[in-house]
């Protein structure tokens, strides 16, 4: 498939899943996940994506250096979707518009300190490990409430919503259960805090249609858009 065919296919599948759930397809934003891709490849996705999603600081830094300074690419937000180490917070704030992988109180406090110094507000998503698998990143569901409370008290962080990675299985019911649980957690948090928390970032190449049916407002798609990743 060519890039155009892949993007056409994804857009159709997003629209279809949204319609099935009685939702407006425009309520689902597409984040182009660009780890391992060249800037050349990334630029093809610019007209179709709401944001760029990158996992690693070092990789994002290299790409940012040659990213266009004007035109449509220049205004596309960059979202950090990979785990952020405390010692890379300053760099992360220089490179990214949002941090979608906030997973600890210590990290929230570091982000607050640096954002305050830079006199900017940082939109964040709290990443929750709903699938409870050992290797996955994100905070445990039980620790979500206290982290949310802390983030609310930090004036330079703006809490936009929640993020999760679905479980590594193609069993529809188990995957959807995880996405539904994130949606319920967000709903409960809205009730308790009065915050709008509009963003639910869930769904990747293998499970985005199920995520949309469970209320996802932001799908993070890499391989279905650019083809299989080659890490070598
Ligand atoms: C790599 C990655 C994605 C995209 O994965 P694909 O299966 O290639 O669509 C989405 N979210 C996160 C956090 C990732 O690391």
Give the termini distance in whole angstroms: 22 Å
Elements, N to C (H/E): HEHEHEHEHEHEHEHEH
Class per helix and strand makeup: alpha/beta
What's the total count of β strands? 8
Small molecules (ligands, ions, cofactors) in the structure: pyridoxal-5'-phosphate
Instruction: Count helical runs.
Output: 9
Roughly what fraction of the amino acids lie in strands? Answer: 15-25%
Enumerate the strands of the largest sheet in spatial order, edge to edge or round the barrel: 7-6-5-4-3-2-1-8
From the alpha-carbon coordinates, what is the Rg to the nearest angstrom? Answer: 17 Å
* Shape summary: globular
Mean pLDDT: 96
Major beta sheet summary: 8 strands, parallel
Low-confidence stretches: none
Which bin fits the share of residues in helices?
A: 40-55%
